[in-house]
Design brief:
homodimer, 38% helix, DNA-binding, 297 residues, Arc Repressor Mutant, subunit A, alpha/beta, D-Maltodextrin-Binding Protein, domain 2, seven-stranded mixed β-sheet
Chain lengths: 297, 297
DNA sequence: TAAGCAATATGATATTTTTTCATGTACAAA
DNA sequence: TTTGTACATGAAAAAATATCATATTGCTTA
């Protein structure tokens, strides 16, 4: 049972997500009439129209748009609130919303899979949600409470969050088979040489090869797969995590450039809100993750 | 009408605040049976008992205590959420919860009264709440959202809040009629002399006379009235805001010590949450206050 | 330009939830 | 033991919310 009943808001959100009343019937398990009435009631309560509907299609009004976003937020925190109170029974329940940076599943040192398994092996009623996003976005979503924990190489840390070091990720510079440097002997490669070629970067400048001069127009990607693709075209050099390259078939089509010269690491952190409300599920998962990562490095 | 209906939690909070079911009837405007049923339902939903009741008296259980605090928090944010959505109509409504340090009403430069009047003169449906507390507490309550704005001489400012300078408050050191220094000529008073007497301080060390050596056991107070009382005993010297002393009868029984030597000022700030949700009422009051304070200084 | 259709609104009725009223139970104090 | 207070409970009433059938509306389409 739910502690807070937000029938009207839940209906509103479901209607928006379903793009109209008709489809929301199935999402909500009530008839279209009921939905119609609920939306009317909500509009009466608010004193303004939240959406245009009818044969012309479904569309939020300007205020409706604002209301929708706020409603989603409050529903999420209502769920978390429920979970907090229910967890006082000793049962692990509610949402656990985890954010990670992309290409994290092959980072063996992180032990994400192992700790998730440990967490889930315990008796629990947790609804898991995993989101992939950039460190900046993850930070933002942690602060708003949209995420409970996030895992990424956070470079600029903010006061609202607290960070725990998890592991290191090793990076090298790679080129594709078609690239002029592909057949170059390592001994002849140095930063001077590298500087002649275009380099592809991640949009959040977090994996920059340190001390590399980037004189040339460079490509920007927001995702590891995209990075690999661009490097494979043979047009760009680019940094990639070693585990990422080694875990895939195409590794043969990529070449590490002067690994003794061009290698660097980034530190992965677990981030949570400093002033987090107590949630057993979050607590337990953090424990599991930190334990698994700490066990051998 | 309310957007979020938290019947169960509202009942719970009202019952706790009324100290039992019987009195909560009047607070809630429903019969005792209804309350009994609601509390039972809440306990069923939670899966644990939240309070002991019966002829033996009313008492929260351990978990009930936790639940009560969380419930109060969520109800407050639900009210604010309602206000946010309702204010999209253009009507100023909802709570406006203001925190101030004590003895603020005689600080003329602050123009608190004038700006409150301006604010309230506008058509509005705002429920005002004014809380008096120490700067530390005010900071805490702002962060949790318990307060919307706070006014005090904040000395250590935190990142979560943003501060606007409002005005200055002038302080002097005073002694009571019975104090040995009461009849001392100002010329003979210096820090050396002062250091021989006990000084009373505010518990948040914010109005400390700068550069005063406090060698002697000193008294601590958390409130301006208390400070005045202790000074009037003739046993302590103590700092007081000038406006505070001048605005009351007893000023004759207090003496400023070497005002040319011993005077200092503290800066009053208005603090709000940096990442505050948009509330028209809050916005307007802040405008009013800043305008009134800025108009002449 | 009217018929057809798809999306929502509405009125009457059914169902469920919540409240009250009357009464029962338990327990501390007299 | 009695009494009175504080809460619990069952039945009935009231209120809120749902459904079903049908109306309305505006956009296609012929």
């Amino acid at each position: 049972m739910k502690l807070l009943r937000n029938t009207l808001l839940e209906t509103f959100v479901a209607v928006v997500d379903s793009g109209g009343f008709t489809d929301a019937q199935f999402a909500l398990g009530i008839t279209q009439s009921a939905i119609s009435i609920r939306i009317r009631d909500l509009e009466t309560a608010l004193g303004y129209r939240i959406c245009e509907r009818g044969r012309g299609g479904f569309r939020l009004t300007e205020r409706g748009e604002i209301a929708y976003n706020k409603a989603r937020d409050i529903l999420r925190s209502a769920r978390d609130f429920d979970a907090e109170l229910l967890e006082l029974r000793g049962i692990t329940t509610g949402d656990l919303r985890i954010g990670v940076i992309d290409a994290v599943n092959t980072l063996a040192e992180l032990k994400l899979e192992k700790s998730l398994k440990q967490f889930l092996d315990r008796p629990n009623e947790v609804r898991l949600e995993i989101v992939v996003a950039s460190p900046t976005e993850l930070t933002q979503r942690l602060i708003t409470g949209e995420l409970h924990v996030a895992i990424a190489p956070f470079r600029n840390q903010v006061a609202e969050l607290s960070y725990t070091e998890l592991c290191q990720e090793e990076h090298r510079l790679y080129c594709g088979r078609e690239h002029p440097l592909y057949d170059f002997p390592d001994e002849q490669i140095d930063k001077e040489v590298i500087a002649h070629y275009q380099i592809c970067q991640r949009s959040y400048n977090m994996l920059d090869p340190p001390n590399l001069q980037l004189n040339h127009p460079k490509a920007i990607v927001a995702n590891m797969e995209a990075m690999a693709t661009l490097i494979e075209t043979g047009h760009y050099l680019g940094p990639l995590p070693v585990h990422f390259v080694e875990s895939r078939r195409q590794s043969k089509s990529l070449r590490e450039l002067a690994p003794s010269l061009l290698h660097w690491t980034s530190t992965f952190y677990l981030a949570t809100r400093s002033t987090s409300l107590y949630r057993r599920a979050v607590e337990l998962f953090v424990e599991d993750l930190v334990r698994c990562c700490g066990s051998d490095t």
